[in-house]
Each structure stands twice: as structure tokens, then as C-alpha cells.
């Protein structure tokens, strides 16, 4: 499991950002319907900005969505670096050497 942790983080980050940015598929296939069943924040921002002509509200939604994506990305990257640093410290202990001579390259 520790060997595939970086790949898991990449997949989680990519899927999270993609789900928050799911606009094109929803607009092309359902236009947010039936009712508001498939509205996501990016589509709601579009509707507020262009259809309702509420420019301030649509811009605020887009800004908050951007900040959420940045925070989620930063948390994933921080967690990945923390686990990588812990793994780097664990190699000498696991190998029984101070220099980490058995670490794979």
C-alpha cells in the first residue's frame, strides 16, 4: 500500500477537481435538469451569470469554487509530501542501516 500511495493521491486529486469542474457534460446533456437535479457549482455559476444576469453572484460562486479547488489541491499535496517525508525517514529503520543502503532507486 505505501508504494501506490502517490498514485492514489493523484487519482483522488484528479477526480475531485474533475467533479467540481463538471460543466460541459451537464450543459450538453441535461442543461441542469430535470429541475435542478444535476446542477453543480460551476453550472450554477454559469446560470447565475449569464441566464439570470446576476454577475456579482455568478462571479462569487466561481471565485469560491476556485478557492475550494486550490484548498483541496493544497491539502492533497501536503498530505502526499508528509507521507513521503515519513517514508524517507522510515527507510533506514526498515533496512537496519543509517545510510539507507537497501533503498530502491
Radius of gyration (CA) equals: 21 Å
- Which consecutive residue ranges, at least 5 long each, have pLDDT under 50? none
Structural class: mainly alpha
Shape: elongated
Largest sheet, if any? none
End-to-end CA span: 18 Å
Instruction: Write down the oligomeric state.
Output: single chain
Question: Can you give me a brief rundown of this structure?
Answer:
With 105 residues, the protein is an all-alpha fold. The protein has four helices and no strands. The protein has helices spanning 5-20, 24-29, 41-51, 55-95.
Give the SSE map.
Layout: H1 5-20, H2 24-29, H3 41-51, H4 55-95
Helix pairs in contact: 1-4, 3-4
Can you describe this structure?
There is one protein chain. The protein is mostly helical and 105 residues long. The chain has one domain (5-89). Helices cover 70% and strands 0% of the residues. The protein has four helices and no strands. The protein is elongated and about 55 Å long. The model has no long low-confidence stretch (mean pLDDT 80).
List keywords for this structure.
105 residues, mainly alpha
